[in-house]
Design a protein that fits this description.
GO molecular function: methylmalonate-semialdehyde dehydrogenase (acylating, NAD) activity
Radius of gyration: 25 Å
CATH architecture of the largest domain: 3-Layer(aba) Sandwich
CATH class of the largest domain: Alpha Beta
GO biological process, one term: L-valine catabolic process
Bound molecules: nicotinamide-adenine-dinucleotide
Shape: globular
CATH superfamily of the largest domain: Aldehyde Dehydrogenase, Chain A, domain 1
Keywords: NAD, Oxidoreductase
Largest sheet: 7 strands, mixed
CATH topology of the largest domain: Aldehyde Dehydrogenase, Chain A, domain 1
InterPro entries: Ald_DH/histidinol_DH (IPR016161), Ald_DH_C (IPR016163), Ald_DH_N (IPR016162), Aldehyde_DH_dom (IPR015590), MeMal-semiAld_DH (IPR010061)
Number of strands: 21
Distance between the termini: 73 Å
Low-confidence stretches: none
Number of domains: 2
Number of helices: 16
Structural class: alpha/beta
EC number: 1.2.1.27
């Protein structure tokens, strides 16, 4: 049985507990991953503590050169990485390349770290006094990442954290851990010193060890909301800086004047791409007015009939299997809940079998109509290839739906009316808004983060928000007396007056 080891500066470590890694196309176990504990984390932290001061003292231009070299290495190994990613996650190869590419764009941003870390300076803040504020690394940061973007999300975190001069310990999802390990190998090859990026595998035991470890200053988490909230609370109670991104239920509002052909094409990709396993997927569509809803539904049914579900290496497949059998059962359970709650199941993707891959974790595209806000299947995240139509009578009703939902990650509006779009963007209570853009994931030099139960903590991921998260401010107030002034103690708080 293939084993996916930790990536530690101290080398291989013994394990007593393991987790299975599946091949979701075939539906069989393909490897096992050791689950680390607090002792293993201690060893990783000790190595990080040894490496970090030297790395922080390396000038930022040299740290940026490591990022440039890493980018080139990831590009050189793109095919291997994409294949590895698809084989554990199940998303199609082109989509895996997109996952890697979106992470690389954060590395490109991190290549500008010398500029990003330049501080602020006030010459002559008082008589002969200058003030200098600069951002310095925190020390050791940790990242805990979900299964659905095993390349992009680790790079969101370690790209910025390491460029800022921190050492980083990554605890990736135990469901698809190979790509994060391979990225750590490539960063080492690019010139990052040993101990600057380590990968520890594990489950709750390792997460708790990270949250409690006194030498880890900051934790970035991305995953489901209940766990994000737990990670946030426990990490903050231990005195750490924590950002914890959670789940989502993104809505797409379709105004009567929208270009429906474009909407249906956008929706098919956004709802069913990556089998719906994206936190920026669009699993709820809100047509405004009955005729918009009826027309949209009819066109969506036709578009679904043309979708091709296939193995992740099939270049013609639109999407592949979900990540494992437990997740498949969970998604199918939510479909049943929707039926039980009275929604109309227009297309049922359950029981889908791919010839030659009957044990694979495939789910066909599923469409519900007449979903209402009181249904649990609407309130909760399904994270599968399931699209729900929630009909709204007016623009006001449509704005209210995503605004009052427990999640507030992304939202989109489809319209030709600039005024409606502008009003919507201004009023909707959601963190990332798309106008005729179904998946409004901000570019790397802006920042990623939702609202409400989609994110706990302050700073967003990447962009200057990421730089702020992974650094703290040191402010130096200085004067260089020439000895001519009269001395004497001052018992009054110094002012610059
Ligand atoms: P998950 O919450 O199950 O796991 C995320 C991480 O937490 C993993 O590393 C896992 O090992 C760890 N973990 C699991 N159970 C734990 C526990 N009881 N205690 C402590 N740690 C635990 O999430 P997932 O299924 O891997 O990923 C899918 C979820 O992530 C979805 O809810 C999706 O919306 C969300 N997500 C959010 C964003 C975002 O930026 N908001 C991005 C991607 C995914």
């Amino acid at each position: 049985m293939k084993q996916i080891d930790h990536f530690l500066a101290t080398g291989a470590a013994a394990a007593t507990r393991y987790s299975d890694v599946f091949d979701p196309n075939a539906g069989v176990v393909q490897a096992r991953v050791p689950l680390g504990d607090a002792a293993l984390l201690d060893a990783a932290v000790a190595a990080a503590q040894k490496a970090q001061p030297g790395w922080a003292a390396t000038n930022p231009q040299r740290r940026a050169r490591v990022m440039f070299a890493f980018k080139a290495l990831v590009e050189k190994n793109m095919d291997e990485l994409a294949y590895m990613l698809s084989s554990e996650h199940g998303k199609v190869i082109a989509d895996s390349k997109g996952d890697i590419q979106r992470g690389l764009e954060v590395i490109e941003f991190a290549c500008g770290i010398p500029h990003l870390l330049k501080g602020e300076y006030t010459l002559g803040a008082g008589p002969g006094i200058d003030v200098l504020s600069t951002r310095v690394p925190l020390g050791i940061g940790a990242g805990i990442t979900p299964f659905n973007f095993p390349a992009m999300i680790p790079m969101w975190m370690f790209g910025v954290a390491i460029a800022c001069g921190n050492a980083f310990i990554l605890k990736p999802s135990e469901r698809d851990p190979s790509v994060p390990v391979r990225l750590a190998e490539l960063l080492r090859e690019a010139g990052a010193p040993e101990g600057i990026l380590q990968v520890v595998h594990g489950d709750k035991e390792m997460v708790d060890a990270i949250l409690d470890h006194p030498a880890i200053s900051a934790v970035s988490f991305v995953g489901s909301s209940d766990i994000a909230h737990y990670v946030y609370s426990r990490g903050v109670a231990a005195g750490k800086r924590v950002q914890a991104m959670g789940g989502a239920k993104n809505h797409g509002i379709v105004m009567p004047d929208a270009d429906l052909d474009q909407v249906v094409s956008d929706l098919a990709g956004a709802a069913f791409g990556s089998a719906g396993e994206r936190c920026m997927a669009l699993p709820v569509v809100v047509p405004v007015g009955k005729s918009t809803a009826d027309e949209l539904r009819a066109r969506m049914v036709k578009a679904i009939a043309k979708l091709r579900v296939g193995v992740s290496t099939d270049p013609d497949a639109d999407y592949g299997p979900v990540v494992n059998a437990a997740h498949k059962a969970r998604v199918e359970g939510w479909i049943q809940t929707g039926v039980d709650e009275g929604a109309e199941l227009v297309v049922d993707g359950r029981g889908f079998e791919l010839q030659g891959h009957e044990k694979g974790f495939f789910i066909g595209p599923t469409l519900f109509d007449h979903v209402t806000p009181d249904m649990r299947a609407y309130k909760e995240e399904i994270f599968g290839p399931v699209l729900q139509i929630v009909r709204a009578e007016t623009f006001e009703d449509a704005v209210a739906l995503p605004s009052t939902h427990q999640y507030g990650n992304g939202v989109a509006i489809f319209t030709r009316n600039g005024h409606a779009a502008r009003e919507f963007a201004a009023r909707v209570n959601v963190g990332m808004v798309g106008i005729n853009v179904p998946i409004p994931v901000p570019v790397a030099y802006h920042s990623f983060g939702g609202w409400k139960r989609s994110a706990f903590g302050d700073h967003n991921q990447h962009g200057t928000e990421g730089v702020r998260f992974w650094t703290k401010v040191k402010t130096v107030t200085q004067k260089w007396p020439d000895g001519s002034a009269e001395g004497g103690n001052s018992f009054v708080i110094p002012t610059m007056g």
